[in-house]
Please model this.
Amino acid sequence: MKNQKKNLPSPLLSVVPILVMVGLLYITIRTFGSDALTGGSQIVLLTTTAVASMLAIGFCKVKWQTLENAICKNIHGVSTAIIILLLIGALSGSWMVSGIVPTMIYYGMQMIHPSFFLTSCCIICAVVSVMTGSSWTTIATIGIALMGIGEAQGFSPGWVAGAIISGAYFGDKISPLSDTTVLASSVTNTPLFSHIRYMMYTTVPSVIITLIIFTIAGFSHASDASTQIAEYAAALNSTFHISPWLMTVPILTAILIARQIPSLITLFVSASLAGICAIIVQPELLQEVAGASATNAQALFKGLFMTFYGSTHIETGNAALNDLVTTRGMAGMLNTIWLIICAMCFGGSMQASGMLESLTSVFLRFMKKGVGMVTSTVCSGLFLNIVTADQYISIILTGNMFKDIYKKNGYDSRVLSRTTEDAVTVTSVLIPWNTCGMTQATILGVSTLTYLPYCFFNILSPLMSIFMMAIGFNIKRLSKPQESVTENV
Model:
Protein backbone atom coordinates (compact mmCIF):
# COMPACT_ATOMS: atom_id res chain seq x y z
CA MET A 1 0.00 0.00 0.00
CA LYS A 2 2.87 2.34 0.79
CA ASN A 3 4.54 1.67 -2.57
CA GLN A 4 1.30 2.56 -4.31
CA LYS A 5 1.23 5.88 -2.48
CA LYS A 6 4.85 6.62 -3.53
CA ASN A 7 4.03 5.92 -7.16
CA LEU A 8 1.14 8.36 -7.25
CA PRO A 9 1.68 11.19 -9.74
CA SER A 10 2.06 14.68 -8.34
CA PRO A 11 -1.03 16.88 -8.07
CA LEU A 12 0.61 19.26 -10.55
CA LEU A 13 0.83 16.52 -13.19
CA SER A 14 -2.61 15.20 -12.28
CA VAL A 15 -4.29 18.54 -12.90
CA VAL A 16 -2.94 18.78 -16.48
CA PRO A 17 -5.78 16.71 -18.06
CA ILE A 18 -8.32 18.82 -16.13
CA LEU A 19 -6.79 22.05 -17.44
CA VAL A 20 -6.72 20.65 -20.99
CA MET A 21 -10.37 19.70 -20.67
CA VAL A 22 -11.39 23.12 -19.33
CA GLY A 23 -9.54 24.86 -22.18
CA LEU A 24 -11.05 22.64 -24.85
CA LEU A 25 -14.53 22.96 -23.34
CA TYR A 26 -14.23 26.74 -23.37
CA ILE A 27 -13.41 26.68 -27.07
CA THR A 28 -16.08 24.07 -27.82
CA ILE A 29 -18.88 25.92 -26.03
CA ARG A 30 -17.86 29.23 -27.60
CA THR A 31 -17.99 27.51 -30.99
CA PHE A 32 -21.07 25.29 -30.68
CA GLY A 33 -23.07 27.04 -27.94
CA SER A 34 -25.94 24.96 -26.58
CA ASP A 35 -25.22 22.32 -29.27
CA ALA A 36 -21.96 21.37 -27.55
CA LEU A 37 -23.62 18.26 -26.08
CA THR A 38 -24.43 16.87 -29.51
CA GLY A 39 -20.83 15.77 -30.00
CA GLY A 40 -18.34 18.50 -29.18
CA SER A 41 -18.18 17.83 -25.45
CA GLN A 42 -17.87 14.09 -26.08
CA ILE A 43 -14.86 14.65 -28.33
CA VAL A 44 -13.30 16.84 -25.65
CA LEU A 45 -13.70 14.04 -23.09
CA LEU A 46 -12.13 11.49 -25.43
CA THR A 47 -9.26 13.88 -26.18
CA THR A 48 -8.56 14.47 -22.50
CA THR A 49 -8.77 10.69 -21.98
CA ALA A 50 -5.96 10.38 -24.51
CA VAL A 51 -3.96 13.09 -22.72
CA ALA A 52 -4.42 11.41 -19.33
CA SER A 53 -3.48 8.02 -20.82
CA MET A 54 -0.31 9.37 -22.46
CA LEU A 55 0.77 11.02 -19.21
CA ALA A 56 0.00 7.80 -17.32
CA ILE A 57 2.07 5.68 -19.71
CA GLY A 58 4.91 8.20 -20.11
CA PHE A 59 5.33 9.51 -16.56
CA CYS A 60 3.54 7.05 -14.28
CA LYS A 61 4.67 3.87 -16.10
CA VAL A 62 1.12 2.53 -16.18
CA LYS A 63 0.50 -0.21 -18.73
CA TRP A 64 -2.12 0.31 -21.40
CA GLN A 65 -3.93 -2.88 -20.36
CA THR A 66 -4.43 -1.40 -16.89
CA LEU A 67 -5.96 1.73 -18.37
CA GLU A 68 -8.17 -0.26 -20.71
CA ASN A 69 -9.41 -2.51 -17.90
CA ALA A 70 -10.28 0.53 -15.77
CA ILE A 71 -12.19 2.14 -18.64
CA CYS A 72 -14.14 -1.07 -19.32
CA LYS A 73 -14.92 -1.44 -15.62
CA ASN A 74 -16.23 2.14 -15.48
CA ILE A 75 -18.45 1.65 -18.52
CA HIS A 76 -19.76 -1.62 -17.10
CA GLY A 77 -20.61 0.23 -13.90
CA VAL A 78 -23.02 2.59 -15.72
CA SER A 79 -24.64 -0.07 -17.93
CA THR A 80 -27.75 -0.09 -15.75
CA ALA A 81 -27.96 3.71 -15.93
CA ILE A 82 -27.80 3.52 -19.73
CA ILE A 83 -30.75 1.11 -19.81
CA ILE A 84 -32.61 3.39 -17.39
CA LEU A 85 -32.03 6.35 -19.70
CA LEU A 86 -33.44 4.41 -22.64
CA LEU A 87 -36.51 3.44 -20.61
CA ILE A 88 -36.91 7.07 -19.53
CA GLY A 89 -36.97 8.07 -23.19
CA ALA A 90 -39.73 5.54 -23.85
CA LEU A 91 -41.57 6.65 -20.72
CA SER A 92 -41.48 10.36 -21.57
CA GLY A 93 -42.84 9.70 -25.05
CA SER A 94 -45.62 7.36 -23.91
CA TRP A 95 -46.68 9.62 -21.02
CA MET A 96 -47.00 12.55 -23.39
CA VAL A 97 -48.84 10.89 -26.30
CA SER A 98 -51.14 8.94 -23.96
CA GLY A 99 -52.33 12.26 -22.51
CA ILE A 100 -50.96 11.73 -18.99
CA VAL A 101 -48.68 14.78 -19.02
CA PRO A 102 -51.22 17.00 -20.85
CA THR A 103 -53.81 16.02 -18.22
CA MET A 104 -51.39 17.07 -15.48
CA ILE A 105 -50.79 20.39 -17.23
CA TYR A 106 -54.50 20.95 -17.88
CA TYR A 107 -55.52 20.50 -14.26
CA GLY A 108 -52.43 22.29 -13.01
CA MET A 109 -53.36 25.40 -14.98
CA GLN A 110 -56.68 25.55 -13.20
CA MET A 111 -54.71 26.33 -10.03
CA ILE A 112 -53.62 29.76 -11.25
CA HIS A 113 -55.19 32.65 -9.38
CA PRO A 114 -54.03 36.25 -9.91
CA SER A 115 -53.49 36.82 -6.19
CA PHE A 116 -51.07 33.89 -6.06
CA PHE A 117 -49.61 34.08 -9.55
CA LEU A 118 -45.92 33.68 -8.63
CA THR A 119 -46.68 30.75 -6.32
CA SER A 120 -48.91 29.08 -8.91
CA CYS A 121 -46.33 29.79 -11.60
CA CYS A 122 -43.67 27.99 -9.58
CA ILE A 123 -45.98 25.05 -8.79
CA ILE A 124 -47.15 24.59 -12.38
CA CYS A 125 -43.59 24.62 -13.73
CA ALA A 126 -42.60 22.16 -11.00
CA VAL A 127 -45.43 19.77 -11.92
CA VAL A 128 -44.68 19.97 -15.65
CA SER A 129 -40.96 19.51 -15.06
CA VAL A 130 -41.50 16.49 -12.82
CA MET A 131 -43.71 14.90 -15.47
CA THR A 132 -41.40 15.69 -18.41
CA GLY A 133 -38.06 15.45 -16.58
CA SER A 134 -36.83 18.52 -18.45
CA SER A 135 -36.43 22.05 -17.09
CA TRP A 136 -35.44 23.25 -20.56
CA THR A 137 -38.65 22.01 -22.18
CA THR A 138 -40.77 23.40 -19.35
CA ILE A 139 -39.19 26.86 -19.54
CA ALA A 140 -39.25 26.93 -23.34
CA THR A 141 -42.98 26.18 -23.46
CA ILE A 142 -45.19 26.89 -20.46
CA GLY A 143 -42.53 29.28 -19.16
CA ILE A 144 -42.91 31.58 -22.15
CA ALA A 145 -46.69 31.67 -21.67
CA LEU A 146 -46.33 32.45 -17.97
CA MET A 147 -43.85 35.25 -18.72
CA GLY A 148 -46.48 36.97 -20.87
CA ILE A 149 -49.17 36.53 -18.23
CA GLY A 150 -46.92 37.80 -15.45
CA GLU A 151 -45.78 40.87 -17.31
CA ALA A 152 -49.41 41.65 -18.22
CA GLN A 153 -50.22 41.57 -14.50
CA GLY A 154 -47.46 44.04 -13.71
CA PHE A 155 -44.79 41.72 -12.30
CA SER A 156 -41.20 42.53 -13.15
CA PRO A 157 -39.56 40.06 -15.58
CA GLY A 158 -36.99 39.08 -12.96
CA TRP A 159 -39.64 37.91 -10.48
CA VAL A 160 -41.60 35.93 -13.06
CA ALA A 161 -38.47 34.33 -14.53
CA GLY A 162 -37.28 33.48 -11.02
CA ALA A 163 -40.56 31.70 -10.23
CA ILE A 164 -40.47 29.79 -13.53
CA ILE A 165 -36.85 28.69 -13.13
CA SER A 166 -37.28 27.78 -9.44
CA GLY A 167 -40.21 25.50 -10.26
CA ALA A 168 -38.67 24.03 -13.39
CA TYR A 169 -35.41 23.12 -11.67
CA PHE A 170 -37.24 21.70 -8.66
CA GLY A 171 -38.95 19.26 -11.02
CA ASP A 172 -35.79 18.58 -13.00
CA LYS A 173 -33.95 17.78 -9.80
CA ILE A 174 -36.38 15.21 -8.38
CA SER A 175 -37.90 13.71 -11.52
CA PRO A 176 -36.88 10.12 -12.34
CA LEU A 177 -37.23 11.20 -15.99
CA SER A 178 -34.46 13.80 -15.64
CA ASP A 179 -31.12 12.93 -17.25
CA THR A 180 -29.23 15.00 -14.64
CA THR A 181 -30.92 13.07 -11.83
CA VAL A 182 -30.01 9.77 -13.45
CA LEU A 183 -26.48 11.03 -14.13
CA ALA A 184 -25.87 12.14 -10.53
CA SER A 185 -27.12 8.83 -9.14
CA SER A 186 -25.15 6.71 -11.62
CA VAL A 187 -21.86 8.60 -11.23
CA THR A 188 -22.01 8.15 -7.43
CA ASN A 189 -23.29 4.55 -7.66
CA THR A 190 -26.54 5.42 -5.88
CA PRO A 191 -29.84 3.68 -6.75
CA LEU A 192 -32.01 6.18 -8.62
CA PHE A 193 -35.06 6.19 -6.36
CA SER A 194 -32.93 6.11 -3.19
CA HIS A 195 -31.19 9.21 -4.53
CA ILE A 196 -34.53 10.95 -5.21
CA ARG A 197 -36.01 10.06 -1.82
CA TYR A 198 -32.91 11.29 0.02
CA MET A 199 -32.90 14.58 -1.88
CA MET A 200 -36.31 15.38 -0.39
CA TYR A 201 -34.67 16.27 2.94
CA THR A 202 -33.03 19.33 1.37
CA THR A 203 -35.35 19.90 -1.59
CA VAL A 204 -38.66 20.11 0.29
CA PRO A 205 -37.50 22.76 2.83
CA SER A 206 -35.92 24.77 0.00
CA VAL A 207 -39.07 24.77 -2.13
CA ILE A 208 -41.33 25.54 0.86
CA ILE A 209 -39.27 28.63 1.72
CA THR A 210 -39.32 29.57 -1.97
CA LEU A 211 -43.11 29.28 -2.19
CA ILE A 212 -43.55 31.37 0.96
CA ILE A 213 -41.40 34.14 -0.55
CA PHE A 214 -43.32 34.07 -3.83
CA THR A 215 -46.67 34.09 -2.01
CA ILE A 216 -45.71 37.18 -0.03
CA ALA A 217 -44.29 38.91 -3.12
CA GLY A 218 -47.34 38.21 -5.28
CA PHE A 219 -50.02 38.89 -2.69
CA SER A 220 -50.74 42.43 -3.86
CA HIS A 221 -51.20 41.49 -7.53
CA ALA A 222 -54.73 40.54 -8.51
CA SER A 223 -55.01 41.14 -12.29
CA ASP A 224 -57.22 38.76 -14.24
CA ALA A 225 -55.37 36.36 -16.56
CA SER A 226 -58.15 33.81 -16.95
CA THR A 227 -58.57 34.46 -20.69
CA GLN A 228 -55.02 33.43 -21.62
CA ILE A 229 -55.14 30.40 -19.33
CA ALA A 230 -58.40 29.35 -20.95
CA GLU A 231 -56.77 29.50 -24.41
CA TYR A 232 -54.00 27.10 -23.41
CA ALA A 233 -56.43 24.81 -21.62
CA ALA A 234 -58.71 24.77 -24.66
CA ALA A 235 -55.81 23.88 -26.96
CA LEU A 236 -54.88 20.93 -24.74
CA ASN A 237 -58.48 19.83 -24.43
CA SER A 238 -59.06 19.92 -28.19
CA THR A 239 -55.94 17.88 -28.96
CA PHE A 240 -55.96 15.28 -26.18
CA HIS A 241 -58.73 13.36 -24.46
CA ILE A 242 -58.22 14.88 -21.02
CA SER A 243 -59.44 12.50 -18.33
CA PRO A 244 -58.76 12.16 -14.60
CA TRP A 245 -58.61 8.38 -15.18
CA LEU A 246 -55.23 8.89 -16.85
CA MET A 247 -53.88 9.91 -13.44
CA THR A 248 -54.01 6.26 -12.40
CA VAL A 249 -50.72 5.64 -14.23
CA PRO A 250 -48.65 8.20 -12.27
CA ILE A 251 -50.41 7.07 -9.09
CA LEU A 252 -49.47 3.44 -9.75
CA THR A 253 -45.94 4.56 -10.62
CA ALA A 254 -45.72 6.44 -7.33
CA ILE A 255 -46.87 3.30 -5.49
CA LEU A 256 -44.17 1.22 -7.19
CA ILE A 257 -41.56 3.83 -6.22
CA ALA A 258 -42.82 3.94 -2.63
CA ARG A 259 -42.61 0.13 -2.43
CA GLN A 260 -38.99 0.41 -3.62
CA ILE A 261 -39.52 -1.71 -6.71
CA PRO A 262 -36.29 -1.68 -8.81
CA SER A 263 -36.02 1.27 -11.20
CA LEU A 264 -35.88 -0.84 -14.36
CA ILE A 265 -39.09 -2.69 -13.46
CA THR A 266 -40.91 0.48 -12.38
CA LEU A 267 -40.01 2.41 -15.53
CA PHE A 268 -40.85 -0.51 -17.83
CA VAL A 269 -44.23 -1.11 -16.18
CA SER A 270 -45.07 2.60 -16.21
CA ALA A 271 -44.16 3.00 -19.89
CA SER A 272 -46.16 -0.12 -20.77
CA LEU A 273 -49.25 1.13 -18.91
CA ALA A 274 -48.95 4.50 -20.64
CA GLY A 275 -48.71 2.71 -23.98
CA ILE A 276 -51.93 0.83 -23.23
CA CYS A 277 -53.60 4.12 -22.30
CA ALA A 278 -52.43 5.67 -25.57
CA ILE A 279 -54.07 2.86 -27.56
CA ILE A 280 -57.34 3.10 -25.63
CA VAL A 281 -57.65 6.86 -25.04
CA GLN A 282 -55.60 8.55 -27.81
CA PRO A 283 -55.79 6.31 -30.93
CA GLU A 284 -56.06 9.35 -33.25
CA LEU A 285 -52.77 10.73 -31.92
CA LEU A 286 -51.01 7.41 -32.52
CA GLN A 287 -52.36 7.57 -36.05
CA GLU A 288 -50.94 11.09 -36.40
CA VAL A 289 -47.55 9.98 -35.06
CA ALA A 290 -47.52 7.05 -37.50
CA GLY A 291 -48.48 9.30 -40.40
CA ALA A 292 -51.29 6.92 -41.32
CA SER A 293 -54.46 8.00 -43.09
CA ALA A 294 -56.72 5.72 -41.09
CA THR A 295 -56.78 4.25 -37.62
CA ASN A 296 -56.14 0.52 -37.82
CA ALA A 297 -54.13 -2.07 -35.93
CA GLN A 298 -51.00 -1.49 -38.01
CA ALA A 299 -51.19 2.30 -37.55
CA LEU A 300 -51.62 1.91 -33.79
CA PHE A 301 -48.69 -0.51 -33.63
CA LYS A 302 -46.44 1.80 -35.65
CA GLY A 303 -47.47 4.93 -33.75
CA LEU A 304 -46.95 3.25 -30.38
CA PHE A 305 -43.47 2.01 -31.26
CA MET A 306 -42.50 5.40 -32.68
CA THR A 307 -43.70 6.98 -29.44
CA PHE A 308 -41.36 4.72 -27.50
CA TYR A 309 -38.22 5.06 -29.61
CA GLY A 310 -38.42 8.21 -31.75
CA SER A 311 -39.43 11.85 -31.94
CA THR A 312 -43.12 12.75 -32.00
CA HIS A 313 -44.66 16.00 -33.20
CA ILE A 314 -48.33 16.68 -32.43
CA GLU A 315 -50.20 19.69 -33.78
CA THR A 316 -52.24 21.45 -31.08
CA GLY A 317 -52.97 24.69 -32.87
CA ASN A 318 -50.73 26.53 -30.40
CA ALA A 319 -47.04 26.99 -31.20
CA ALA A 320 -45.90 26.96 -27.57
CA LEU A 321 -47.85 23.81 -26.78
CA ASN A 322 -46.52 22.13 -29.94
CA ASP A 323 -43.02 22.39 -28.45
CA LEU A 324 -44.20 21.10 -25.08
CA VAL A 325 -45.85 17.95 -26.41
CA THR A 326 -42.93 17.13 -28.71
CA THR A 327 -40.98 14.13 -27.37
CA ARG A 328 -37.65 12.53 -28.25
CA GLY A 329 -38.14 8.93 -27.14
CA MET A 330 -35.22 6.55 -26.68
CA ALA A 331 -33.30 8.14 -29.55
CA GLY A 332 -33.34 11.47 -27.70
CA MET A 333 -31.27 9.95 -24.89
CA LEU A 334 -28.39 8.86 -27.11
CA ASN A 335 -26.41 12.10 -26.73
CA THR A 336 -26.54 11.77 -22.95
CA ILE A 337 -25.55 8.10 -23.16
CA TRP A 338 -22.69 9.01 -25.49
CA LEU A 339 -21.57 11.67 -23.01
CA ILE A 340 -21.67 9.20 -20.11
CA ILE A 341 -19.59 6.61 -21.99
CA CYS A 342 -16.96 9.20 -22.93
CA ALA A 343 -16.92 10.50 -19.35
CA MET A 344 -16.38 6.98 -18.03
CA CYS A 345 -13.39 6.65 -20.37
CA PHE A 346 -11.92 9.82 -18.91
CA GLY A 347 -12.68 8.75 -15.34
CA GLY A 348 -11.16 5.32 -15.93
CA SER A 349 -7.89 6.73 -17.25
CA MET A 350 -7.68 9.23 -14.38
CA GLN A 351 -8.38 6.52 -11.83
CA ALA A 352 -6.02 3.87 -13.21
CA SER A 353 -3.19 6.37 -13.52
CA GLY A 354 -3.58 7.44 -9.89
CA MET A 355 -4.25 11.04 -10.92
CA LEU A 356 -7.73 11.10 -9.42
CA GLU A 357 -6.40 9.74 -6.12
CA SER A 358 -3.61 12.31 -6.18
CA LEU A 359 -6.09 15.17 -6.61
CA THR A 360 -8.50 13.89 -3.97
CA SER A 361 -5.65 13.49 -1.50
CA VAL A 362 -5.24 17.27 -1.64
CA PHE A 363 -8.87 17.72 -0.56
CA LEU A 364 -8.43 15.22 2.27
CA ARG A 365 -5.87 17.48 3.92
CA PHE A 366 -8.45 20.22 4.42
CA MET A 367 -11.58 18.22 5.17
CA LYS A 368 -11.52 17.20 8.80
CA LYS A 369 -15.27 17.27 9.39
CA GLY A 370 -18.44 16.48 7.48
CA VAL A 371 -19.40 20.14 7.13
CA GLY A 372 -16.09 20.93 5.48
CA MET A 373 -16.52 17.96 3.17
CA VAL A 374 -19.99 19.00 2.01
CA THR A 375 -18.95 22.65 1.74
CA SER A 376 -15.96 21.63 -0.39
CA THR A 377 -18.27 19.57 -2.61
CA VAL A 378 -20.66 22.49 -3.05
CA CYS A 379 -17.85 24.93 -3.83
CA SER A 380 -16.21 22.47 -6.23
CA GLY A 381 -19.50 21.82 -8.04
CA LEU A 382 -20.16 25.53 -8.40
CA PHE A 383 -16.57 26.15 -9.53
CA LEU A 384 -16.80 23.40 -12.16
CA ASN A 385 -20.11 24.86 -13.37
CA ILE A 386 -18.28 28.14 -13.87
CA VAL A 387 -15.13 26.83 -15.56
CA THR A 388 -16.64 24.01 -17.66
CA ALA A 389 -19.89 25.89 -18.43
CA ASP A 390 -21.75 22.56 -18.55
CA GLN A 391 -23.81 20.89 -15.81
CA TYR A 392 -23.38 17.35 -17.13
CA ILE A 393 -19.60 17.45 -17.07
CA SER A 394 -19.65 19.21 -13.69
CA ILE A 395 -21.82 16.44 -12.21
CA ILE A 396 -19.49 13.77 -13.57
CA LEU A 397 -16.32 15.45 -12.30
CA THR A 398 -17.77 16.31 -8.87
CA GLY A 399 -19.05 12.78 -8.35
CA ASN A 400 -15.79 11.15 -9.41
CA MET A 401 -13.59 13.54 -7.41
CA PHE A 402 -15.41 13.05 -4.10
CA LYS A 403 -16.65 9.47 -4.41
CA ASP A 404 -13.71 7.89 -2.57
CA ILE A 405 -13.49 10.73 -0.04
CA TYR A 406 -17.08 10.22 1.12
CA LYS A 407 -16.56 6.47 1.25
CA LYS A 408 -13.36 6.76 3.28
CA ASN A 409 -15.12 9.10 5.69
CA GLY A 410 -17.87 6.53 6.16
CA TYR A 411 -20.68 8.41 4.42
CA ASP A 412 -23.30 6.73 2.26
CA SER A 413 -23.20 7.56 -1.46
CA ARG A 414 -26.61 9.25 -1.09
CA VAL A 415 -24.98 12.12 0.79
CA LEU A 416 -22.66 12.76 -2.16
CA SER A 417 -25.32 12.31 -4.85
CA ARG A 418 -27.64 14.75 -3.06
CA THR A 419 -24.91 17.32 -2.50
CA THR A 420 -23.84 17.04 -6.14
CA GLU A 421 -27.37 17.76 -7.35
CA ASP A 422 -27.79 20.62 -4.88
CA ALA A 423 -24.46 22.12 -5.92
CA VAL A 424 -24.45 21.56 -9.69
CA THR A 425 -27.86 20.93 -11.27
CA VAL A 426 -29.69 23.92 -9.80
CA THR A 427 -26.83 26.45 -9.96
CA SER A 428 -25.96 25.92 -13.63
CA VAL A 429 -28.79 28.23 -14.71
CA LEU A 430 -27.38 31.05 -12.56
CA ILE A 431 -24.15 31.34 -14.55
CA PRO A 432 -24.42 33.59 -17.64
CA TRP A 433 -21.93 31.65 -19.81
CA ASN A 434 -23.11 28.19 -18.75
CA THR A 435 -25.16 26.40 -21.41
CA CYS A 436 -28.17 26.46 -19.05
CA GLY A 437 -27.81 30.14 -18.21
CA MET A 438 -27.36 31.13 -21.85
CA THR A 439 -30.33 29.07 -22.98
CA GLN A 440 -32.85 30.20 -20.36
CA ALA A 441 -31.87 33.87 -20.66
CA THR A 442 -32.43 33.66 -24.42
CA ILE A 443 -35.73 31.78 -24.15
CA LEU A 444 -37.27 34.02 -21.47
CA GLY A 445 -35.79 37.26 -22.81
CA VAL A 446 -34.42 38.09 -19.35
CA SER A 447 -30.70 38.34 -18.64
CA THR A 448 -29.19 35.86 -16.20
CA LEU A 449 -28.14 38.56 -13.74
CA THR A 450 -31.68 40.00 -13.82
CA TYR A 451 -33.44 36.78 -12.76
CA LEU A 452 -30.61 35.42 -10.56
CA PRO A 453 -31.69 37.23 -7.32
CA TYR A 454 -35.21 35.77 -7.65
CA CYS A 455 -34.25 32.12 -8.23
CA PHE A 456 -34.68 31.40 -4.54
CA PHE A 457 -34.88 27.62 -4.87
CA ASN A 458 -31.63 27.50 -6.86
CA ILE A 459 -29.85 29.67 -4.31
CA LEU A 460 -31.22 27.88 -1.24
CA SER A 461 -30.54 24.29 -2.36
CA PRO A 462 -26.72 24.22 -1.95
CA LEU A 463 -26.99 26.16 1.30
CA MET A 464 -29.56 23.65 2.57
CA SER A 465 -27.12 20.78 1.92
CA ILE A 466 -24.51 22.46 4.09
CA PHE A 467 -27.09 23.30 6.76
CA MET A 468 -28.38 19.72 6.98
CA MET A 469 -24.85 18.42 7.44
CA ALA A 470 -24.14 21.09 10.05
CA ILE A 471 -27.11 20.04 12.21
CA GLY A 472 -26.53 16.36 11.42
CA PHE A 473 -30.11 15.76 10.26
CA ASN A 474 -30.59 12.26 8.78
CA ILE A 475 -27.03 11.99 7.52
CA LYS A 476 -26.59 8.47 6.18
CA ARG A 477 -23.45 6.57 7.21
CA LEU A 478 -21.99 3.36 5.88
CA SER A 479 -22.47 0.39 8.17
CA LYS A 480 -18.76 -0.43 7.84
CA PRO A 481 -16.65 2.61 6.89
CA GLN A 482 -13.63 1.75 4.77
CA GLU A 483 -11.39 4.07 6.71
CA SER A 484 -11.99 6.27 9.70
CA VAL A 485 -10.16 9.43 8.71
CA THR A 486 -12.54 12.05 10.08
CA GLU A 487 -14.52 12.70 13.16
CA ASN A 488 -18.28 12.99 13.38
CA VAL A 489 -19.93 16.33 12.89
About this structure: The CA atoms of residues 22 and 388 lie 6 Å apart. The chain has 26 helices and no strands.
